[in-house]
Amino acid sequence: MAYLPQIIERQRQLGRPIRVGLVGAGQMGIGLVAQTNRIPGMEVAAIADIAPGRADAAFRRTGRENVVSTPDVDKLNAALVEGRPVALEDAGLLVRLDLDIIVEASGVPEVGAAVALNGLLSGKDIALLNVETDVTVGLLLSALARRMGRVYTVCRGDEPVECKRLVDYALDLGLTVTCAGKGKNNPLDPTATPDGLAAQAAAKHMNPKMLTSFVDGSKTMIEMAALANATGLGVSRRGFHGPRTTVPELAEVFRPKADGGILDAAGVVDYCTGPVAPGVFVVAKCDDPVVVAEMDYLSMGSGPYYTFYRPYHLASVEAPLTIAEAVLTRRPSLAPTTWTAEVVACAKRDLRAGELLDGIGGSSVYGVTDHAATAAAEGMVPLGLAAGARVLRDIPAGSSLTTRDVDIKQDTVIAALRRLQDLLLAGNTLDALLPLPLPTTTPDTAPAPQSAFAAPLGT
Fold first, then answer.
1. Which pLDDT band, with edges at 50, 70 and 90, does 320 fall under?
2. What are the pLDDT digits (tens) for 32-41?
């Protein structure tokens, strides 16, 4: 679907662009600001970042001046009407502004959960460049968004979303998805720490904790769990197989063992290392002899397993596509539809009773994806809840943490949402969990099969 003509037409009708609010002016956030600045009819209108001056600097790096910074919401909304950018340190103010959608790009699960919840309750659509939040409480947030007539989504450009598009493509062709996944450019090192990667992070102009989450494998585990929960695919095995392979070998490797591959069962997610990175892939099966012959003629191989491969993902560069999809079509690019995968916290080193865990990308824990049912039955601690948890007893390195091992910090938004999500998974309805009436917000222009414009809030 071509969004640009629709975005321009929307601006013509409403007299203003799609107004985007952004939380987090780090690498991903700045990339989004720069890319959105190139799209007629769409703009990042307001940025919130806890670091003083960083939101203002993000606008100025893309050539936007006359930035407004004030706690006065009326003045902020007036600035938006005038087309002046708004820079804030308090993300809570974003939900009170006349924005069409809020993009959360902090990468911190607690921040993502708080922004998403407050945004939805304030009638905003929510898009995450924060998959860490999605794999912790995304099912509940998605249900809440649907109940309120809003959109909750993970952004295009990240591997889960781009891989899901290949999954949808294969399913639309009537094929059976055997495995879906991503390529990773280095083997996992679960002992990696921010201190050990500080020099490398500085050379790459990256946050050391972000780089650590890549190297220790947490990010891969998070991304593949998000893909599983959005597609209904299962987990190949705890921690995945992660073989080193190449694109031509994908269909040979990611097939069931009975057919010469590595999988115990079909219909799963996994990842690999090697030159498949930075792409995403789907291996799908068709054993219809007519289709097999046609696929062979079309140079797709002898079958019955076929590889569908996208050799890139463009992170924040592609995120505006999700903004357009949410605002124009009222559909998410990716959101959980089930809960088949859980990313659980494991000890990076020997942990001692009494110490506090530092969460994703830190020095104390890393993430491993497991079957959600197994994680629940064994009381494993979701990685997104690990930050701030107190260790109750000595735990050897490599152990999966359980609720018997650590005391999860309960006075957080994400912990509260997770408790509700667990009740939702236990068979409770959202209305039973949240008995107070929820505001239902509906765009003034009803969605149509091809396209719909969401009217600006407050008009």
1. very high
2. 999 999 999 9
pLDDT in tens, 122-167: 999 999 999 999 999 999 999 999 999 999 999 999 999 999 999 9
Which residue has tokens 């969990």? 433
Q: What are phi and psi of 151, to 5 degrees?
A: -115, 130
Assign domain 341-409 to its CATH architecture. Answer: Alpha-Beta Complex (3.90)
Q: What are phi and psi of 209, to 5 degrees?
A: -70, -35
Element (H, E) at 284: strand 280-285
Q: Tell me the three state secondary structure of residue 164.
A: helix
Q: Where are the domains of the chain?
A: 4-157+317-329, 159-229+243-307, 341-409
Taking Cα atoms as reference points, which of 81, 39, 88 lies closest to residue 59? 88
Q: What is the helix (H) or strand (E) element at residue 35, kind and residue range? A: helix 27-36
Considering only CA atoms, which of 252, 313, 259 is closest in space to residue 283?
Answer: 252
Architecture in CATH of 4-157+317-329: 3-Layer(aba) Sandwich (3.40)
User: Residue 435: CB partners within 8 Å, gap ≥ 6?
Assistant: none
What kind and span of H or E run contains 215?
helix 208-215
SS3 label, residue 309? strand
Q: Locate 133 and state its tokens.
A: 């939040």
Mean pLDDT of the chain: 93
